Amino acid sequence: MNLNKVFGLYTVGFIVVTILIGIAEAVFGLPNRVIGWIFMGLSMGIYLLIGIVTRTSDADQYYVAGRGVPALYNGMATGSDWMSAASFISMAGALSAQGFSGLAYVMGWTGGYLLLAVFLGPYLRQFGKYTIPDFLGERYGGHTPRLIGVLAAILASFTYLIAQVTGVGLIVSRFIGLDFNIGVFVGLIGVLFCSVLGGMRAVTWTQVAQYIILITSYLVPVVVLSFKLFAIPVPELTYGRLLERNNQAALRISADPGEKATRAKWAEEAKALGEKLKDPAVPEAEKEKAKAAQAVANRQAAAPAAEGARLEKYLSVPTGTGMWNFLALTFCLMVGTAGLPHILTRYYTTPSVREARTSVGWSLFFIFLLYFTAPAYAAFARNAVFTNLVGSKISELPAWVNLWAPAGLFSVVDKAGDGIVQFADFVVKSTDFVVLATPEIAGLPFVITGLVMAGGLAAALSTADGLLLTIANAISHDLYYNVINPKASLIKRLTITKVLLITVALISAWVATARLAIIVELVAWAFSLGAASFFPALVMGIWWKRANYHGAVAGMLVGLGTTLYYMVGSRFFGVSWFGTTTVASGVFGIPLGFLTIWIVSSLTKAPSQQMQDFVVSIRYPKTGGASAAIDAGH
Amino acid sequence: MSELTQEQKESYWRYNVRLTTILLVIWFVVTYLLGGVWAGALNEITIIGFPLGYWVAAQGSLAVFVVEIALYAKLMNAKDLEYGIREEG
Question: In whole angstroms, what is the distance from residue A362 CA to residue A341 CA?
Fold first, then answer.
């Protein structure tokens, strides 16, 4: 059947079902938990169905979806492959807490696509292999570059995978009240079903389906909110007015006597906790708690705007080290975007180089729709806090506060005991409330919250799918087939891939249930790792024919080593170069990687004439690559 | 497809490199200067409520990236056809 028709019908069906559930909620008073179950059941059901329909045991289909994915659909698949639980649930919240500095994520995660478009995408397609370590192995020769590629792919993808699996567990536990650990495993079933049965082909079409749910559910609440407040359904345009109002509110709050009194109380508490921390008699475990409480108190004691400032801190641009870290993080996220193997492999799946170019364009467009809206989300949520929470009586809190406070995302305390909610009385524990509570803030029925849940789940599952496949293929295709046993039959290779998929999924679920405290760092680290290990070797391999085996091996090791050293050093052992934060660790490894490849390649023997000619030849698109197929995946 | 002459190849590649360079310069200026180093100064200007520096980093830069990639795909794909590069599968 025609693809446009299938996905068109699917979208319409999805909207109709959402409306039907909405009617059921209004008429029969369908309980929230039931709505949560319906949304989760339905969306998981769709993913399972796609897995069954697109199951395959053909190598081209399994690894690169038969190189038959049209640009538009590859763009959507890349979009949901790309946008993770972090983008969907957490990014807008992070923006609401960090203000301007948080925009590093918005710019970094979109601007990287330009690097991908002009440096890598079309050339990788012309090269026409299956995986990214594959490219390294073929281009530089010998097993070592391929093996370093496998190692880096696993390292970067696995770090990222844990964050996704944790996201799945959080969403499932929050919405349908399953235990976190069970939620993790329920979510994984959806992921595994697809990738095991149909490899890249099933994952691709599932990701397209997931993108449609993801983007609809992200846009609906904030568009409605914008329409309610300004009669214009374009939040990206109207939130400027809110920034203005929020700024006014922040300036007023900074000078308000009641607020000042509340902040003084927090400052007192922070001081008292500081004294307690100095006391040697206090046991270690208690100190940890006191430290956390002190951080909260310090945050609450800070005014939202500096004295006499025109703009609140939220809108102010950092200077000095703050600016350096902003630029460094933006840079790492951009280069990482163009260096993460699960995204790069997506450009092997298009039918031609021309489609690969167009496809990067579509990818960024579909990603842009979400990222362009995230800052608006943050502004709308802050506005709700400023206008409808601050100043209300402690005894009469707005409905959305009462609904979400039990979830532990935030709490409202009456610090100064004046019976009025001050801004400093609002203690945020997880900024995730920004996306999760917006439907209620907009006064929308719970069905929309269910929709948002389905969207968050889609975002986490689709990314997990792509990552799992990348890890399994790196091991089965690159390590086993190309290095250990080149005579292995296709059936054997695919079987190994499937066993690996399940094993890796289980390991990641097991790690996720440990609830590591460093989830946020894990995501940023994955980018720095991908950026420092792959990007220099890929770009030099394509753009400089003289780059050779020794240069690539040395460059990847130096890039990866420097980044790992700084990551671990800065997070745990107080290493600090130019005050750079741990999330921007790649900023040193990336340039060093390039430099090393250049120096070492120049000092050692040039690659064979044949290889050099080949590198030049991929500049000119000719055919559809190693194995072009026109099959569009039905 | 008929083979391209050496001269054609060189001019095709020169075009590609020039286009790539221009796009990267714009990318750099928008991200690191307008949306980064100069954003503080741009914040002095306000347009429909947005301080300009904040707007560039939150919205403007993203739109520029989308346009740039679309432009690259369009121009390079057209160039392929001009040089008779038609990928047959």
Answer: 19
